[in-house]
Design brief:
By secondary structure, the protein is mainly α. It has five helices and no strands. The protein is elongated.
Length: 150
């Protein structure tokens, strides 16, 4: 598996986030909207997806050697399950009007794009290091790619 595979898999997730309709995001995603703003179900859902992607980035960023590569596998598998559940729940969301969709894209797409760049960078780094010799890490990432692509 190459970084391109992981990035290609992340893109549909990110696009789904932008068009989607439960908790506030942390880290890079925190500044997406003021805390006092009344959040719609769609906002909460998108923020949850952003949080999951930020967590994916954070797990990848911690990989620095074979030990941390192996340690990343269980959190990646848990994230795969959470992303799969999130993705399936996206389909159950009520459709957004064109105006709502455009507002959501304006509000969240910049954050999603920044996360995509950061995930891609980490994926490239890990792949260039040949997954630090881990046999389990590529399998975990393939699992994410296979099960979380929309």
């Amino acid at each position: 598996m190459t970084y391109t595979s992981l990035t290609i898999a992340a893109l549909p997730l990110l696009c789904g986030l932008a068009a989607a309709q439960s908790t506030p995001a942390t880290g890079a995603a925190q500044s997406a909207a003021p805390a006092q703003e009344q959040l719609s179900q769609a906002d909460i859902h998108v923020r949850t997806g952003i949080t999951l992607l930020a967590q994916l980035h954070d797990v990848l960023a911690k990989i620095q050697d074979k030990d941390t590569a192996e340690e990343a596998v269980p959190p990646l598998m848990r994230l795969e399950e959470a992303l799969t559940r999130w993705s399936k729940s996206t389909a159950a969301m009520p459709p957004l009007s064109d105006l709502e969709r455009m507002e959501m894209e304006d509000k969240y797409l910049p954050v999603i794009k920044r996360l995509n760049v950061r995930i891609k960078s980490q994926a490239e780094r890990v792949a260039a290091a040949e997954f630090y010799g881990s046999r389990n890490l590529p399998a975990a990432l393939v699992h994410i790619v296979t099960n979380c692509s929309m």
